[in-house]
Amino acid sequence: MLVGNVVALLSPMIFIPVLTYIKPQNYDWESMKMIRRGDDHDIADRADVDLELVPGETNKSEMEMQEEQRKLEKNGKVARYLTLFLAVALLGEYF
């Protein structure tokens, strides 16, 4: 059982770089920023709902978008460090 767990935890360290560098896709992630919510004004008009009163339905300014991007990058770093820490801590139990 120990061998199976160690193989399951360590095999991605070998397989992921090998499979990634065989045929890299070089995705730029800029297209994800271009995705916007659909326009629901026609549905809101039929339901007699004012979209300005719905939480989260406001247009964000460029400054708010930059602040959100900064927060996402910071939280991404925290997530990476926690993932690394947990992997080392869990592997440390077996060795």
In short:
This protein has helices at 2-22, 30-33, 41-46, 62-94.
Characterization of the model:
This protein is an all-alpha fold. The chain is 67% helix and 0% strand. It contains 4 helices and no strands. The longest helix has 33 residues, at 62-94. The two termini are 14 Å apart.
Overview features:
95 residues; mainly alpha; 0% strand; elongated
Work out the radius of gyration: 22 Å
Give the domain tally.
Answer: 1
- Tell me how many strands there are: 0
**Main beta sheet: strand number and arrangement?**
none
Low-confidence stretches: none
Tell me roughly what share of residues is in helical segments.
55-70%
What number is the mean pLDDT?
Answer: 83
Strand content: under 5%
SSE order and pairing:
Elements: H1 2-22, H2 30-33, H3 41-46, H4 62-94
